[in-house]
Amino acid sequence: MFAQHHSSYLLLLITVLISVGISASPPMIIDGERYKECSHLFECGSVKNITYPFWGEGRNKDCGLPGFELECRHDYPVMEIMSEDCRDLSIDQKSFTMNVVRMDFWGDACPEKFVNITIDQALFHYAPKPPAFYLNLSLFYNCPSPISSNHFTCTGNGIAVGDGYYATTPTWNNQTQSCKGHIVVPILQKSLEKLQNGLEPLSVVLRSGFDLKYKYDVLQHCFQCLLSGGQCGSNSSSNEFVCFRQPRFCPEQPQLRSERPPPLTSSSTEARRKTPGVVAEWLDLWNS
Ligand SMILES: *[C@@H]1O[C@H](CO)[C@@H](O)[C@H](O)[C@H]1NC(C)=O
Ligand SMILES: *[C@@H]1O[C@H](CO)[C@@H](O)[C@H](O)[C@H]1NC(C)=O
Ligand SMILES: *[C@@H]1O[C@H](CO)[C@@H](O)[C@H](O)[C@H]1NC(C)=O
Ligand SMILES: *[C@@H]1O[C@H](CO)[C@@H](O)[C@H](O)[C@H]1NC(C)=O
Ligand SMILES: *[C@@H]1O[C@H](CO)[C@@H](O)[C@H](O)[C@H]1NC(C)=O
């Protein structure tokens, strides 16, 4: 039974490799140490099996790309986005999407400082399509008089105290302008619907975060590398993609440049074993 499953898997693999085309092979570097380091998958709390372009916590910088560093803090991954800490609720490597929430919104809707986060447009974009369509939600704090009925309360002794107000399309007038703080946060459209229907309070909506899709074309580079038994990484000085290979796989001839798929050695089986979820998911993706 295993053999049967295995052979159909190989057939699929060959089909995939042929359809992918092996022409645009990534540069390969024989480096056993890096290979080993990059084989190590990031794991933190419920977020598991995370691979390139993410790095951190045992995955060296050159196992990923700048801007994708993850830190594991009390069982949840944290990523810095434009100098603000964001908590990664989930990472879907199949759709290259992560769901993130600003750390300062983890407790309530009242941040410790008024700051907008802007994403690095070179790396990410807000998940643009339904059902993950997003909207900008404006939050107003420390307003001398009520500006709308959409209010929430800020307690404690942070900078935001008293009533706060939210609006998707704020009207600019003397009242809104007199508020001491105004920030804009992206939220998912479905979250807004829950907020407007009274199904979820603002704090819960903010805590469900927003989706960011990373622009990096992981499939083009990394998938081929994994299938050929390598581990994805980058040159930390040039940031170019590199495929780390183990010394014992040192190919005499540039196998990956040939028109034919690379031989399905034990190394690719090993790669699949080591990055099980991702490769299988990417295989599905290629095949769909
Ligand atoms: C991580 O990979 C292991 C091994 O294949 C798998 O059993 C597990 O379900 C995966 N976990 C997640 C969260 O994807
Ligand atoms: C956040 O962005 C909004 C809209 O661009 C702007 O009106 C507001 O002043 C910004 N807030 C801060 C703290 O920069
Ligand atoms: C949200 O605000 C940002 C920054 O002001 C803007 O670039 C973007 O187009 C807005 N998105 C939507 C869906 O309104
Ligand atoms: C808004 O403020 C300006 C300047 O303080 C004032 O001249 C104007 O009358 C105000 N408008 C309203 C509607 O209160
Ligand atoms: C990394 O990139 C630099 C600059 O392009 C280059 O000189 C160096 O040889 C590269 N290193 C590796 C290991 O490929």
Structural description of this entry:
Strands 4-5-6-7-13-8 form a 6-stranded antiparallel sheet, with no helix packed on it. The chain has helices at residues 2-20, 32-39, 174-177, 189-196, 202-207, 218-227, 266-274, 276-287; strands at residues 28-30, 42-44, 47-50, 71-73, 76-81, 84-92, 97-102, 124-126, 134-141, 151-154, 162-167, 181-188, 210-214, 231-234, 241-245. Residues 9-23 and 252-266 have low confidence and may be disordered. The protein has 2 domains: 2-82 and 216-287, no CATH class; 97-214, no CATH class. The chain is built from 8 helices and 15 strands. Helix 7 packs across helix 8. Strand 10 (151-154) and strand 11 (162-167) form a beta hairpin. Bound molecules: 2-acetamido-2-deoxy-beta-D-glucopyranose (5 copies).
Summarize this structure as a short list of keywords or feature phrases.
single chain, 288 residues, alpha+beta, 2 domains, six-stranded antiparallel sheet, four-stranded antiparallel sheet, 15 strands, 26% helix, elongated, binds 2-acetamido-2-deoxy-beta-D-glucopyranose
